[in-house]
What we know:
Keywords: Activator, DNA-binding, Nucleus, Repeat, Transcription, Transcription regulation. The protein is built from ten helices and four strands; from the N terminus they run αααααααβαβββαα.
Amino acid sequence: MGRKPCCDKEGVNRGAWSLKEDELLSNYIQLHGEGRWKSLPQKAGLNRCGKSCRLRWMNYLRPGIKRGNISPDEEDLIIRLHRLLGNRWSLIAGRLPGRTDNEIKNYWNTFLSKKSNSHVSKTFESEDKKSLRKSMSSTTRNVIVPKATRFTKVLLSLDEDDHFKTSQCPPSSTPVDTNDGSTPESSKENDVLDMPNAFDYLDFSEIGTEGIFENNNVLESDDVAPLFDMEFHNLTYSLELEDDWTNLL
DNA sequence: AAATGGCGCAACCGCTTCGTT
DNA sequence: TAACGAAGCGGTTGCGCCATT
C-alpha cells in the first residue's frame, strides 16, 4: 500500500501553465480568496492538481511578487539569513517582501551557495572564529548546528522566563518541546508560554534532544550550555540581528 | 546553420506539520 | 487522544533558452 496521491494524476494537466489557466486561477482566488486548494481546481474550472494551483499562486500569480533583479541588499540579507537559518527558505523569504521561498531557493542554488562558501572561508578564519572552532572541536559530541527546525512551543519556567527577558541569549538550559511533540513531564507544572523566539529557529538534531534532556528533564550540562550560549551569541552578533531577536522576546 | 552543453527557473514530489473532528 | 485531511515546506527534476563550438 503506497501513499495516497494528493490527486488523480491521470488526465490532469502538468507542466507549464497557460495564460488561460493563470487567468482562471487568478479570477477564482480574487473572488473567493485563497485556501481549499484541493477543491479549488474543480470550482475554478482548472484541470490541475490543487497543490499545483497553490504553488502557481504562491510563487507566480500572487499580487506583490517581485521577480528577478535581486538587489545587493537582498542578496546580502539572504546570505546572512541562510547562515543563521539554514535552508529554511520560507523563513528567509518572510524577511524579503515580495520574494518567494522558491525564488530564493533557486537563487541560492544557482548563485549564492558558491559565493557564500567563499565568503565564509575568508571571514570565518578570524582569530575569534578559530578559537571558537577549536573549542567546539574539543567537544565534538556536543556540536550544536543551528539547523532550522520549527518548535511550535517553548516551555519556560518562571525563573527561566525572567532570564530570557533580561538576556540577549536564551537560557542555556531552557526546556523546549521534545522532537516528538510530547511535553516534558517536568515542565507540566510550569507556565507554558506560547511565544515566538529564537528557539523557533534552532534545532538540536545533530546531537538529538537527548543530548540536552534526559528522562524529560533538563540536564545540568556544563559543556553543552556555554557552548550553546557562545554559538548563539556568535550567530546573532555576526548577523547584526540581536535587535530582531530581542524584539521577539 | 546545426549540434551540444550549461544554466536558470518553474513545477513536481513526497514528507512534515497543522488543524479539525 | 487519535485519526485524518489540508496545507506547508524543501529537495529534486525537467524543460526551455542561450552561448559556444
